Amino acid sequence: MGQQIVNGLFLGSIYALFALGYTLVFGVLDILNLAHQAVFMICAYAALVLVVHLHMPMFVAFPAAVLLGGILGMGVDRIAFRPLRGRSDSNIAGLISSIALATILEAVVSQIFGPDVERFPLGSVPTRTLHIGDAVVSELQIVIIAIAAAMLLGLTWLLRRTRLGRRIRAVAESPKAARVLGVDVDWIISASFFVSSALGAAAGILFGLAFNNVAPDMGRSVELKGLAVIVLGGMGSMPGAALAGLALGLLEVFTVAFIGSSYRDAVAFGVLFLVLVLRPRGLLGSAALREA
Amino acid sequence: MNGPVRSLAAAAVALLAFPTLSSAETVKIGGAFSITGNAAAYGAQQKHGVQAAIEDVNKSGKLKGITLELVLEDDGTSKEQGIAVYQRFINKDKVSAIIGPTLSNTASAADPIAQQGKTPVVAVSNTAPKGITDIGDYIWRVSLTEAQVIPSALAIAKAKMGFKTAAVLYGNDDVFTKAGFDVMKAALEAQGVKIVDIQTFATKDRDFNAQLTALKSKNPEFLMVSALVEQAAAIVSQARQLGWNVPIMGGNGFNSPKLIANAGPAADGVLVGTAWNKASTDPVNLAFIAGQKARNNDPDQFCAQAYTGVLVIADAIAQAGMKGGRDDIKAGFEKVKDLSTPLGKFSFLPNRDGNHAAAMQIVKDGKFQILQ
User: Fold this and answer.
1) Is A139 on the interface with B (CB under 8 A)?
2) What are the boundaries of each domain within chain A?
3) In chain B, what are the domain boundaries?
4) Residues of chain B with pLDDT under 70
5) Distances from the Cα of A275 to the Cαs of A5, A259, A266, A272, in angstroms?
6) Alpha carbons B1 and B3: distance in angstroms, whole number
7) Which of B200, B207, B265 has the CB atom closest to A211's CB atom?
8) A263 pLDDT exceeds 90?
9) Does A98 touch chain B (CB under 8 A)?
10) What was the ipTM of the complex prediction?
11) How far apart are CA A25 and CA A31, in angstroms?
């Protein structure tokens, strides 16, 4: 039982980690960037190349790959979204062009690395374990849970307390009004993409490490759950996304434990559906919808 | 006719007859293996196996003057190329029997050509339970199916370890892992082992902690896993990470050096059935291994099975009264019984599948070793 709670919190932290970066752009700016999962995947590969081929230690490779993720995110904005901005249907057009970009990036990675799973060399992360009651927790799992918590606090702080955060919120409220007030909207969106994708990169690397499994389809396997977590938590709410991530992780684990592994996704998404019907704004979403 | 003329005539007849006789005594065998393509790693081993076997049979004189000749072709790990190679073997090279092809997938397309052309085939690496020997009465098989290896290997493990309860974990969205599960369940039941819990996962899953924890909480003494190799390594690693140290036995997906490479030290103690007991001290097996060492090849199961395929054909020729025609060999197969091969005493079952004892491997010091 204790072990299943640990398993659920760990899995939930992975979902939260993915969703937090995602929701900065999706939940706050209302831009659905379906290339987020591609950045997530590419940066796991980037860290892998740095560690395996350039023999960097993980604590150097990690920030380097995260930085690359941020830059890649700005590139995604520049290529897939900015040229379409200002069109009447820019949300849908951007969504489609980000799918296209994700597909291209995935194909390129498959070409370079092949479809097989790549792995970090044994011993590149600590494998020691701790015993808490009857549960076993690995150091890596603790690190992942801690990083997810730190990201949640950092992002909330960024949005609520910093100049950049205020501007992001201003752009989210009304790009036109923000522009009138002297905010460089394109730059703010670009900066949001940088932060969002850097977080996505961190999530990708930790995901790759957690299961020691880096493959071209790794992003796809969490993309849908990440979206579900954002909606479940309430659009644009950082604590909501984190809470929903943990809830989904625990829900899946307990479905496996008590109902059976075959029903895992059915139960998880069934609950998501119920929440949406009974509480459309999600767990921690604000009641009033923003009106543009 | 007087004496000298008569003997001269006899000599002339003998002279004339000699070349035709010698050509009649060469029996061609077509070997279709994946020398290129995805299965090339297996094909290389199979090539070593048949080449050595042809040499050994010819040298042994067992076939009393009949010489086996190998015609080797690449099936390209593809159905199309497999079919083309078979057509060449049957119509152009006029082989008496075919060994191969490497993959069941290729066999499902190429073997019907041989059945139509009434040319016997010995499958030496196809393990698909259905769709190989049921193609027709010219298709015979040396390689054991997973359904044959698992029960036999499990019996060895049970005799060694004496477990009474087991749990099973399997991928339920893949045909091969699902089929493996059915075999495991039946084998456990046949051994009188109580299955305390069954859990499933999906091919794309990376996290198996929840399933493993649930299984662990039921305290089984043994865990059987039907998974492809990528998941196999993750499952083994995560089970050990959870501090769960029961013996784990895998299906065919575990039968790969990749398991050891990917799971590292966590793979130690993992059990996998195998058709070839490489530690067997049977003289035929020792001679086979020595022969491969002399060719600078480290033989694996595929090599031993390919070698056995040639021995089976040679024995069929002998059983047919030293006749190497296509139907002679087919008729001879029916009489192959308890033939000494590197795989052990080999016979055919009534459905033309092969039958011999399987062995159990255990991962030890980063290598597959035979559980003695």
Assistant:
1) no
2) 2-218
3) 8-143+280-357, 147-274
4) 1-24
5) 22, 20, 14, 5
6) 7
7) B207
8) no
9) no
10) 0.83
11) 6
- Give the CA count within 13 Å in the CB-facing half-sphere of B244: 28
Distance (Å) from the C-alpha of residue B207 to the closest C-alpha of chain A? 7
* Higher per-residue pLDDT: A235 or A225: A225
> Residues 6 or more apart from A252 whose CB is under 8 A from it?
A8, A11, A264, A265, A267, A268, B210
Closest-CA distance of chain B to residue A176, Å: 44
Least confident of A84-93, A95-104, B361-370: A84-93
CATH of B8-143+280-357, one of 1.10.3210.10, 3.40.50.150, 3.40.50.2300, 3.90.1010.10: 3.40.50.2300
Residue A274 CA: distances (Å) to CA of A41, A267, A268, A287, B21: 31, 10, 10, 18, 84
Q: Give percent of chain A with pLDDT exceeding 70.
A: 98
Among A213, A221, A256, whose Cβ lies nearest the Cβ of B210? A256
What's the predicted TM-score (pTM) here? 0.79
pLDDT on residue A234:
84
- Contact (CB<8Å) B234/A4: no
How many other β-carbons are positioned within 10 Å of the β-carbon of residue A292? 9
Instruction: Indicate yes or no: CB of B204 within 8 angstroms of CB of A221.
Output: yes
Burial of B15 (0-12, 13-18, 19+ CB in 10 A): exposed
Looking at residue B228, its pLDDT comes to 82
Same fold, B8-143+280-357 and B147-274: yes
User: Per-residue DSSP letters for B52-74?
Assistant: HHHHHHHHHTTTTT-EEEEEEEE
State both tokens at B348: 């055919």
Q: A127 to chain B: nearest residue by CA?
A: B241
Tokens linked to B357: 């004892």
Q: What is the pLDDT of residue B9?
A: 56
Q: Are strands B26-33 and B97-99 parallel, antiparallel or unpaired?
A: parallel
> In Å, how far is B44's CA from the nearest CA of chain A?
22
CB of A171 closer than 8 Å to CB of A183: yes
For residue B40, the model assigns a pLDDT of 84
Q: Which residues of B touch A218 (CB under 8 A)?
A: 206
CATH code of domain B147-274:
3.40.50.2300
Contacts of A264 in chain B (CB under 8 A): 210
Helices within chain B (DSSP H only):
3-24, 40-60, 79-87, 104-116, 146-161, 175-190, 209-216, 229-241, 257-263, 283-294, 301-319, 326-333
Instruction: Select the residue from A10, A13, A256 to test the B interface by mutation, using most B Cβ atoms within 10 A.
Output: A256
How far is B343 from B277, CA to CA, in rounded Å? 7
Which one of B198, B213, B256 makes the best mutation probe of the A interface by having the most chain A beta carbons within 10 Å?
B213
Of B32 and A152, which is predicted with more confidence? B32
**What is the overall mean pLDDT for chain B?**
90
| Alpha-carbon distance B201 to nearest alpha carbon in chain A (angstroms) | 6
Q: Are strands B26-33 and A135-138 parallel, antiparallel or unpaired?
A: unpaired
Cα torsion angle, B95, B98, B101, B107, sign: positive
